[in-house]
What we know:
178 residues; alpha/beta; Double Stranded RNA Binding Domain; six-stranded mixed beta sheet; 5 helices; disordered C terminus
Amino acid sequence: xxxxxxxxxxxxxxxxxxxxxxxxxxxxxxxxxxxxxxxxxxxxxxxxxxxxxxxxxxxxxxxxxxxxxxxxxxxxxxxxxxxxxxxxxxxxxxxxxxxxxxxxxxxxxxxxxxxxxxxxxxxxxxxxxxxxxxxxxxxxxxxxxxxxxxxxxxxxxxxxxxxxxxxxxxxxxxxxxx
Length: 178
């Protein structure tokens, strides 16, 4: 004789529809709280000077200070260019943008640094926590994150000494010996 299970047995054997939906949507919800960072390193830069186009739309002046400091630590000389400067002002030019947001505290929720060599894009670093609303990892020290991005974007030390001489263009005079 065939016996049908009663409702209590079915409920213990099969998860409820809401439990199945929760399990199915959990990975999607966690992915929506992701913080993304992507760096395409700038390779083969000539010389040791990086010209940075000042971006007045970045209201936090600490970004530029941290960017300059990170470049100097790697051996680069930094020259600031006024907003609207051409990408051909210097052999190596960099632009940047950054945004801050409030959520219990101010935090950097987006940063982008681009590097150009001879006016051609050669590297880019992006930090993006705009979708990390529930992720506590968004509360970072911006100066440390900028230093990390610079270390990845400019993978080696600045070309100097013999390296700079090897990279120097023929139209650029060599420095006088000391």
